[in-house]
Structure formats: structure tokens, C-alpha cells
Design brief:
Elements: E1 11-15, H1 21-24, E2 31-35, H2 36-39, H3 44-56, H4 58-61, E3 70-74, H5 77-82, H6 100-117, E4 123-124, H7 130-133, H8 135-147, E5 155-156, H9 161-171, E6 174-177, H10 187-200, E7 204-207, H11 213-216, E8 223-226, H12 228-234, E9 237-240, E10 243-246, H13 249-254, E11 260-262, H14 268-280, H15 285-290, H16 292-316
Parallel strand pairs: 1-2, 1-8, 2-3, 3-4, 5-6, 6-7, 7-8, 10-11
Antiparallel strand pairs: 9-10
Helix pairs in contact: 9-10, 12-16
Length: 330
């Protein structure tokens, strides 16, 4: 597990590494988030090889490096509850809620997995299904795993309520909070209210599915994760410190004016700057146009850059946590 007695810097985890391993395995990324939902489907030999390289692979990439990656294990509850065949006979057209029995079975499988492979992971979170079976039953499963000696951490969702957030922030030194999907109207105010309570209780917070720089620059999360590095690549774009650039043949053809720059419309100076950035990280412009795996790998460098930029900001502020005054109470 993470050593919380040491200085703890902001960490940005790239998610979905287990299903996009071929894209990220040779990148010097230090923080990976993986999902039990997909790991449980791997043959044992492949699973153990993946976990070993995920944890210790930096030494293979960087000569003389003895640093290990920080691995975050997500329960995959969201994937499970939305997946085809997660229960016998269930399909993607079935909108009915999952049964408590199915989720309990999934939790017990998760528990056995953690008992066997938990030593690879620095952070392990609960099977967070508050929206499906309610917070009391979800907490029962959480307590069941902790009773077996598993150091899992809670994930807060709206059904838990404010009192639960305050209580857990006093009990645990690290926990998660749901992403922006339900807080799009005013995420800055919402998350800052939560962060203030948690940090006053020396509890560090992980934001799920959160790499919006406009939010991260104004809300002092301790860690976040996102699969955007892979999704953007699949959509034909690459992230760079000077903008998101549509570069695949298809995305250039269908490019729209907006936040995304179109490679075909860059001027000579901009193309040279972009080419230098690409070459510095071991890629080619032509390769990025035709291979989504190259785009995905290059995107990981952008998120490492973003992580460093956010860390430098808080270091400049001498680690002071500055919160926006709440506009409303939730």
C-alpha cells in the first residue's frame, strides 16, 4: 500500500492499462489503474506475467531504474453492472437492476483475487454499487472484505450523503469520489466543498474519471484517473502541451473547428514544433496518422506532463490548499 507517512504528491493514473497493455507497456508511465472486471478474465499465466511487468516494468524500460509503478486496483463494478452476460441470460438490452446475490458473488470473487494478488497493488477500492443496491448493502460488502484483512478503501457516491463523507474522511486516510457525470453544473464548487472537509481530516482523495485540467487546476485532488489517453487515440487525436491535434486520416477529413486542432491546417512552424515533440518521444508523424496504438502511447506522455504541471503548481503554492467559496450546499 502507499506509505502515507511520506510526502504525498499528486498522482495521475492512466486507466484501462490491462486492456490496452500493448499501448502503454513500453512507456515510462508510473501510475496505472487496472480493473478486476477484465483481470479476472485473463488466463492465470498471462495475468501473472502482466502484473509482474505492470509493477516492475520500469526497470525494463529505463536502464538502472529500481523504481516500481504505483498500481491502483478498481473493482470494475461499473463495467460489471453494464456488461453483456455479467449474469447468465443477461444482455445489453436488459435494463433491469442487478440482484444483490449477483453482486455479492462478484464481491467474493474480488475478495479471493485480492487475497492472491493484492501484494502487487498500492491502492484497492471497494465494489461501489450504491446506485444499484443502496449504500447500506454496499457498505456491508465493504466491511465483509475488511473483516478478511483486506485494506480496501471506500468510494463516495451521492446516495451516501454528506454525513457519510465526513465520517469516512475521519476514518480513512485515502478514499475515492465519483466523477463529474452528475456534477457538471458546478464541479469546482462541489468538489472543493468535499476536498476541504477531507483535507482538514488528513484524508487524501482520488477523483475517478477526472482529467479535465480546468478542474484539476482549481481543485486540490490528491490523485485522479482517466482512460482519455486511449479514447482520444481511438478517435484519431493526440494530446500535447500545446493542444489536442486531430491527426489520423479519418479525423483530419472529419475535423471540426473547436478545441481540436487539425494537423492538416497547422502552419509550417506549428508542424515543425509538433514534429519535434513527436520525435522526442520516439514516434513519427506518419505513424501517428495510421496507428492508434502509437497515438495512445504518445498521449501517456501528455498526461505525465500534466501531472508534473499540477505538482509544480501546488509546490509553488507551498502545498497550500486553496478552496473556492461554496456557491451552494449539496
Amino acid at each position: 500500500m502507499l506509505d502515507f507517512t511520506k510526502k504525498y504528491e499528486f498522482k495521475l493514473f492512466i486507466a484501462s492499462c490491462e486492456i490496452n497493455y500493448r499501448c502503454c507497456k513500453n512507456t515510462p508511465t508510473k501510475n496505472w489503474l487496472v480493473s478486476f472486471y477484465y483481470l479476472r478474465k485473463m488466463p492465470r499465466e498471462r495475468l501473472e506475467a502482466f502484473l509482474k511487468d505492470a509493477k516492475y516494468g520500469l526497470s525494463r524500460i529505463i536502464p538502472g531504474c529500481d523504481e516500481t509503478r504505483t498500481l491502483f486496483l478498481d473493482s470494475g463494478a461499473f463495467s460489471f453492472q453494464n456488461a453483456f452476460g455479467c449474469i447468465d441470460g443477461r444482455n445489453n438490452n436488459d435494463k433491469s437492476e442487478l440482484t444483490t446475490y449477483a453482486l455479492m458473488t462478484y464481491m467474493l470473487d474480488y475478495l479471493e483475487f485480492v487475497k492472491q494478488y493484492g501484494h502487487y497493488f498500492d491502492i484497492i477500492v471497494e465494489v461501489d454499487v450504491d446506485y444499484i443496491i443502496g449504500s447500506k448493502k454496499t457498505r456491508y460488502m465493504f466491511d465483509r472484505m475488511r473483516q478478511d484483512g483486506v485494506d480496501i478503501r471506500p468510494v463516495w457516491h451521492i446516495p451516501k450523503g454528506d454525513a457519510w463523507w465526513e465520517k469516512d474522511s475521519k476514518t480513512f486516510n485515502y478514499m475515492g469520489i465519483e466523477g463529474q457525470t452528475r456534477h457538471r453544473d458546478d464541479p469546482i464548487s462541489f468538489y472543493n466543498q468535499k476536498m476541504k472537509i477531507a483535507h482538514e481530516n488528513d484524508c487524501r482523495i482520488h477523483g475517478f474519471a477526472m482529467t479535465d485540467f480546468g478542474v484539476l487546476d482549481r481543485v486540490p485532488f490528491d490523485s485522479v484517473d482517466s482512460a482519455s489517453w486511449m479514447l482520444q487515440a481511438a478517435n484519431g487525436t493526440v494530446k500535447t502541451p500545446f493542444g489536442t491535434i486531430a491527426i489520423s486520416d479519418r479525423s483530419i477529413m472529419n475535423g471540426e473547428i473547436g478545441d481540436v486542432l487539425n494537423y492538416a491546417s497547422l502552419n509550417t512552424l506549428q508542424k515543425a514544433e509538433f514534429s519535434d515533440y513527436v520525435t522526442k518521444h520516439g514516434f513519427t508523424v506518419d505513424g501517428l496518422k495510421h496507428e492508434w496504438k502509437d497515438r495512445a502511447a504518445l498521449n501517456t506522455y501528455y498526461y505525465s506532463w500534466m501531472e508534473d504541471k499540477i505538482n509544480r503548481k501546488w509546490s509553488y503554492l507551498n502545498s497550500a490548499k486553496v478552496y473556492q467559496r461554496p456557491l451552494f450546499t449539496v
